[in-house]
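Re: export button greyed out
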Amino acid sequence: MIEPLLLNLEHRDVLAPSEHALLRKTMTMSRRIAKGDDLVSDGSRPTCSTLLVQGFAARYKITRDGGRQITALHVPGDFVDLHAFLLKTMDHGIVALSPCHVLLADHADLRQITESSPHLARLLWLDTLVHGSIHRAWIVAMGRRSKASHLAHIVCELYARLQITGNVDGQSFHFPLSQAEMADVMGLSLVHMNRVIQDMRRNGLISWVNQTVSILDWERLRTLAEFDPTYLNLWIEPR
Amino acid sequence: MIEPLLLNLEHRDVLAPSEHALLRKTMTMSRRIAKGDDLVSDGSRPTCSTLLVQGFAARYKITRDGGRQITALHVPGDFVDLHAFLLKTMDHGIVALSPCHVLLADHADLRQITESSPHLARLLWLDTLVHGSIHRAWIVAMGRRSKASHLAHIVCELYARLQITGNVDGQSFHFPLSQAEMADVMGLSLVHMNRVIQDMRRNGLISWVNQTVSILDWERLRTLAEFDPTYLNLWIEPR
DNA sequence: CGCGATCTTGATAGGGTTCAAGGTCCGTGG
DNA sequence: CCACGGACCTTGAACCCTATCAAGATCGCG
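Workaround output, generated via the alternate export path:
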């Protein structure tokens, strides 16, 4: 069940068999979370970290006026709250956008990894750095891209991230978010989100029906998004 | 010269004298960068990481149409491209917004720290996690706050970050950005940025003259920004 | 004193929010 | 098996926020 994480890490560096074993030993507990429930709550102080192995989840923050902003989307293989191992207190929540299956790693065991297995520790560090890199890509998209380009960038990114764990099917992937949730990702109103999506469809770039997104024209989508996957660090090198 | 980094780390955990010494030994080279020059260039593969000890710097990305989005502001004490130690290839640039003084740490030496000094390694990891946390706060501000609230949040955040290294003076701090640069931070046009700033002044929240920002009414500024410093992790605990 | 960089203001147009209403789909219970 | 309700998607219209274009004002420096 830990395979999605291994695939993730192995796209960045070679793992020794002992590192496989160590990770397996660390991820003991398993949990299922229903759609809409929090994997991790705002303000909590987790004592273990959550690895998402199945389903979609989102980091989010609620503002005083009741608005919600999603700051990250998580897919199978993402170590969703590895952050809390060192940050200690959650300053935002993480919610299941679909039924989720997760594995838990006790912080004491993670600490043990940093003490005894520096290479594996660097790869876990790297995992959090890649998510930081994704945050920067989102900031650029929010600040300086058209809404269509922003959406296109998200679709390209999700395709790339889902592909490495085998969660795509041809040019399509399962995508369980509602348009309202997508609006919370892009910082738009629901009405405008809907219009941006329909423009995209009319232009023959994507289809999105039945919780399935399909990329109809990669080249034009990539160009519109100015998508360059460098920031996802999807290549192997010694780290 | 390494003091700002020590102050930064020591706001999160206790450092042993040997860890002080190790950091000092690692930060050998020193460099000065003129305003407007890149500390680190987009697309490069740095072999050392840059610690900012004096001045302001910004991470930025240029879009095809010539727009610029600043994804992070850096102040003295920030280990600005520790990321590249593991991410390897820069997918964005880092520019000096004022004359900057930096220290360099060779990646081989950083690797040595992760091998021999796990606690210090965790603190460096933590430093990058805090910057990820700041990214998320920015995403929330860009997506779901009014422009005035967004600006207020940035002012609160900078004040808090500058304070821990002793770079504030009462309720004021030196802030060398132009309004055009600030527009690239917030993803606005220059004209609108100017209007947001003037609203803020008219409301008696801040003054901003001569590269000096002063907070005139903390309580109202904090409320407007919904600023909660939890995400900056400015408290000591074992990590 | 003159020039470039920066800040400020006005006018216009377009993008995005909000309010309102109707449509579609699907699961549930009578 | 069909009626109903709820979640989600779609559309229209009015208004406001923000970008863009254009020009003038201010500041600091050589």
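Chain B touches chain A through 49 residues (CB under 8 Å). The button fix ships in the next patch.
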